Amino acid sequence: MNRRGLWTLTLAALFLGLAIPACMGAGTAAKPVELKTDDDRTLYALGISLGSNIAPYGLSADEMEFVKRGFGDAALGAKAEVDMQAFGPKIRDMMQAHMAKKSEAEKVRSKEYLDKAAKEAGAQVAPSGMVYFETQKGTGPTPAAGDSVKVHYRGTFTDGKEFDSSYTRNQPVEFSLGGVISCWTEGLQKVAVGGKARLVCPSAIAYGDQGRPPTIPGGATLVFEVELLEIKPPAAAH
Prior knowledge:
There is one protein chain. Helices cover 38% and strands 18% of the residues. The chain contains seven helices and seven strands. It has helices at 3-17, 38-54, 61-75, 84-87, 90-118, 166-169, 182-188, and strands at residues 124-125, 131-136, 148-157, 162-165, 173-176, 196-201, 222-232. A hairpin with a 4-residue loop joins strand 3 and strand 4 (162-165). The chain is elongated.
């Protein structure tokens, strides 16, 4: 975890900590806040945004209580209950361990989906683990690994939840095939211009164990519906 990640964790703890009393350890119950004004709602939205940034670490509710307690003690100037020189350096290792554990659990959940997809009619399973489906045959040429392309796409998790879509933005994207996840580099070379395909991408050829926080968790298998609109000269891509 880099310094920015630790700062995000601390800021998130602040907003999570707003739900507990200022005098931590006093045993008084926190009064629930009500979202009465636009400022209230904006602050709440900020809390949601910050909280989503620490979700990839997979901290439990019980673990978050320790985080909030530490934050509260530091914010109120209370004496730290641990030696920060001894335990501060352990933060990075602990967070990385949490992410690794969460990533492995995600890969276990994804395996059933991948196995099922590989048995579907029309499935082409590549040595990389990608499962490819041609959903509409194209009539033009197919790109090479060094080409740039213009595509429409929709990305979903294995539960069908959409996380990104150029269709929603009504704006196709242009990129070099060498500059995207390897599942796309491999899969789009099988699509002819005018064609469509579904790419099932295990994490090893997508975003790996790190994922793409806060949207894509580590270890996630992703499903992309892609439509190849055009092969473009590399210099024209942006």
